[in-house]
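Tutorial handout. Part one gives the primary structure; part two gives the three-dimensional structure as tokens.
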Amino acid sequence: MPAEAAKPGRLRRFLDSDIGWSFRHTPAAWLSTLVLVILILTALFCPLIAPQNPHDLAQVFIDKAEIPPIWSPDGEWPFLLGTDPQGRDVLSAILYGTRVSLIIGFSAVLVSMVIGVSIGLAAGFYGGRIDNLLMRLGDTVLSIPTLLMAILVSAIFRELLPPGLRDPFAAAVLVVSIALTSWVQYARTVRASTMVERRKEYVLAARIIKVPAGRIMRRHILPNTLTPVMVAATLNLGLAILSEATLSFLGVGMPITQPSLGTLIRIGNQYLFSGSWWLVVFPSLQLGLIVLSVNLLGDWLRDALNPKLR
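Part two.
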């Protein structure tokens, strides 16, 4: 009972806080959150919502190929957004592809955040040669165009894998490729905060009583650096999803057997001028809606957590 009573209290405290007040009075924030939640839920529960499993050949009928959307004269139920040349329902393919894109995007942000935060903590806490070495490594990564770096890393990992494992591990390769090109921002942000925190009394006291450096960084410094990291992670989520879509569109991302939104756009682009416009338009709209919602939410969070704008 006390735990149940605490939940409304926590919710009320959040709504009465500065961030809660800003969220309630910023239409772009709660609208983008609502849209993003709906997109995530429909992607997670796509097996229950989608009219068809596009990966199940028993549910794909070639005689239903290239049916236009339902509002067209030749449209058929239940293919609301039409079908592709293989007879797959476009809506179902979009829902399943959205799930793939979101999983890769969230995973890439999480991995890059772990790498960047770890490097930033070490560089800011130890300083000296370690700081110089790690930051020069970050400068080297930034000197290479992000897309080119991601393509290079993806190609190397794919070549190292046996041919039979390339498609099953395509998502993992994409996550690593995107993460290795986007950790520098987290590292620089955490490094700057760590250099400020390590000079404060509570850190100096912990070092005097011989608390291990790893525990100081993990238990004392890290919690005070998470606010800018979470803002950066929210903003980078849209970039990670776009990077995955770009790599898949270029043919070095997800395969046709596990299509993401980028793969669907690449496939649909081949039929754009043959009259099957819905094959590229609807996946593109879905991708744009996801990225726009994430960016609007990230922009609001950045402004809401900035004390200068309160």
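Part three, for discussion. The chain has a mean pLDDT of 83. The chain has 15 helices and no strands.
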